[in-house]
Design goal:
This protein is α+β, with helices and mostly antiparallel strands and about 270 residues long. The chain has 7 helices and 16 strands. The strands form 3 sheets. Strands 7, 8, 9, 10, 11, 12, 13, 14 and 15 form a 9-stranded mixed beta sheet that branches. Strands 2-1-6-5-3 form a 5-stranded antiparallel beta sheet, covered by helices on one side. The chain has a two-stranded antiparallel sheet with strand order 4-16. The radius of gyration is 19 Å and the shape is globular.
Length: about 270
Amino acid sequence: MTATFHTVQRDGEPADRDALAPLAFAGYAHFTAMQVRGGRVRGLDLHLDRLRNASHELFGQALPDERIRALLRAALPEGEDDVSLVATVYCAAGEFSAAAQAPHVLVRTAAPSAGPAGPLSLAVFGHERMLPHIKHVGEVAKTWYLREAARQGHDDAAFMDRHGHLSEASIWNLAFWDGDSVVWPEAPMLSGITMQIVRRRLAELGIPQRSQAITTEQAATMRGAAVMNSWTPGVAVHRIGTARLPDAAPLVAVLHGAYALEPLVVP
């Protein structure tokens, strides 16, 4: 299905053909994705931190937080409260250049999403992302593995590092349930905004959580598993590789309950 964008702006102005054409070949950029509800978002501070830190690491400079917030507000459509929003930060010099240039911001909005219903089946592949802590573009491997997982009869792909430890899924963070605690994989990966929100709200609720290295064999002993991203704080997973997992309803309820405590704020 082809996405229909409601708004596409570059630096706060409608993006024309000349502004968009170079991006068709740009693979050196980073972004953040969020769901806007009633004109507000959850975890705004975390999104701003992500964009600022990644810009410093990739470009050596970052736009002020207030400038980013203004660009997010400018892209929100009047009279339409619920949308998906993606903010991408890039430099006009593009790839294969060490030129020091102030970054630009492309913001686009589309229809809101709540993610798939699940439960999902995940194929497991050995894969480690470049700069795993940054949400960057140009990741052909993630789509390749997603398509390969579908070819094998699965819904999506999960990744395993060189030590045999599960890290993340194609566009998802993983979470497990041992019957008492939420268990997060310990491996090089992207710490997603939804994951960060859930972790800080679980801490406030006093719900036990921990991080540990998890193999596929250990995953099979868990009492449930789920994935999360900007669409949703939890979709049940019933299979990871050959490991079958029990009903994850208790885990999904905990994740959704924690996430709902995060306040919605205006950019």
